[in-house]
Amino acid sequence: MKFEINSRIEEASTLPASFYKNLELYEKSLEQIFVPSWQWIGDSNKKENKHCYPFELLSGSLNEPLLLSKDAQGELHCLSNVCTHRGKILVEKPGKQHMISCGYHGRCFHLNGKFRSMPEFKQAENFPSEADHLPSLAIKQLGNLLFTSLSPQVSFETVFAPIMDRMSWFNFDQLQANAQDSADYIIDAHWALYCDNYLEGFHVPFVHPGLGERLSYQNYHTEIFDYCNLQLGVASDNAPIFDIPKDAVDYGKRIHAYYWWIFPNIMLNIYTWGVSVNVVEPLGYNKTRVKFRAYLLEGHSSEEIKDSTLHETEMEDEEVVISVQKGLQSRLYKAGRFSPKQEKGVHHFHSLLAKFLSQ
Ligand code: FES
Ligand SMILES: [Fe+2]
Fold first, then answer.
1. C or N: which end of the chain has fewer Cβ atoms within 10 Å?
2. Ligand 1: nearest atom to the Cα of 106
3. 124-154 per-position pLDDT tens digit
4. Which ligand 1 atom minimizes the distance to the CA of 88?
5. Ligand 1 center to residue 189 CA distance, Å?
6. What is the chain's Cα-based Rg?
7. What superfamily does domain 17-35+169-357 belong to in CATH?
């Protein structure tokens, strides 16, 4: 199946319904879209006390066993959590060990992933070689937020430049995780439907009465960049707004929230109190986990997060996304058209999906 999205939104049709129902395309998307993408892997604060923190990258789809470690110099590493001998998972739970040792035949690695020792290998020739170290992935930071990629196709700097430029005044390095306002949502829908819904504010007046009161629908607009886009949430009269410095692009605007989407599945919702990181994780072609992780800036409180009605908005979004998932099973629905004014973000997403799938 081949997709093309007309680059002129005025003429374009959406991705066909078949995209969201096809297992083969789902699997192809994992390899061609998610493997080369930049993924959020947590923050630099929480690893402070632990030297080794195992996790799966996109658990439920890629399931890539990885390990965040901090070496004696305090440097963070993102390593494969698979032993280079016969492939056992190395670290099963977070811990404070000073080296990484395999519980199968005793191979040891330094915390930076370099091979350290292995019993019974004296006669092995050309050993150890490069292949015996743990594969190491790049760690990139947006303040305290950490990102990695299994096989980056586009540099982190290229993908995130619009955010770093636009938000250079925002204290990403002050962000502190707030567990009590974080949650996982499991939704019976294709992951891309969740993104489609996020990428337009068109539905706000119809679906989100609470949020609609905070935003000025007339001034709400979307800006497209290469691998990310921004929905600028201009505030209504009485919503909290940013104090934006004079030299910034948005100085003088009454902004309630910046809604950044990073291809394919990361959302950074930036509020006066901090950031709500949303990660859309595929669990199959009709199941999705959305992680909401709240981060507070210094001097702000959990009350402000509650005021942003993130949970209520999420429930309202889930309801429409599940309804679309059902609607797309229809034999009579094929594809739709875009509102050139209101659905630029969805058009951008569909264009990127088509591009990556046709590679
Ligand atoms: S698999 Fe790790 S030492 Fe054998
Ligand atoms: Fe919504």
1. C
2. 3
3. 999 999 999 999 999 999 999 999 999 999 9
4. 1
5. 39
6. 22
7. Naphthalene 1,2-dioxygenase Alpha Subunit; Chain A, domain 1 (3.90.380.10)
